[in-house]
């Protein structure tokens, strides 16, 4: 959801317009036009989504390492903690995007959420569930 440009979708005289965190796409993609008052919010969303990807990869590496090094009955505390940090990053990013950019789209009528926005909220839910499961998971 971080890379693709379908966070908001709308229609215009030229067809369907979609925006993401980086680009505005109609038939071709251009840099996303952002007002100076919304620029800091967009940068924060971009940064927290990238951080969530990084923490997700770190959690995967930690899980694999702990899977082979922990004794039976030990818990995956570090992996769970990293996944909960990933969850928090997604929460912050998607909340800022929802508060600042929902319903506003340049050159568009009838804007609505795209699949990347919905996918980001689904990732939010799953990262929380996975983080909690890692904290209570025992290696058998």
From TrEMBL:
The chain crosses the membrane at residues 44-64, 76-97, 117-137. GO terms for cellular component: plasma membrane. It is a multi-pass membrane protein. It is found in: Membrane. It comes from the Eukaryota. Its main location: membrane. InterPro entries: PMP-22/EMP/MP20-like, PMP22/EMP/MP20/Claudin, PMP22_EMP_MP20. The keyword Transmembrane applies. The keyword Repeat does not apply. Keywords: Glycoprotein, Membrane, Transmembrane, Transmembrane helix. Belongs to the PMP-22/EMP/MP20 family. This is Epithelial membrane protein 1. It comes from Platysteira castanea.
């Amino acid at each position: 959801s971080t890379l693709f440009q379908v966070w908001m979708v709308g229609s215009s005289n030229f067809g369907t317009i979609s925006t993401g965190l980086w680009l505005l796409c109609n038939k071709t993609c251009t840099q996303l036009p952002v007002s100076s008052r919304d620029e800091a919010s967009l940068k924060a969303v971009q940064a927290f989504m990238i951080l969530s990807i990084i923490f997700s990869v770190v959690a995967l590496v930690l899980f694999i390492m702990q899977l082979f090094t922990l004794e039976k009955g030990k818990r995956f505390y570090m992996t769970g903690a990293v996944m909960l940090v990933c969850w928090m990053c997604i929460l912050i990013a998607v909340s800022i995007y929802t508060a600042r950019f929902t319903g506003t789209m340049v050159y568009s009528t009838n804007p609505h959420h795209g699949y990347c926005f919905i996918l980001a909220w689904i990732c939010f839910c799953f990262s929380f569930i996975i983080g909690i499961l890692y904290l209570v998971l025992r290696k058998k």
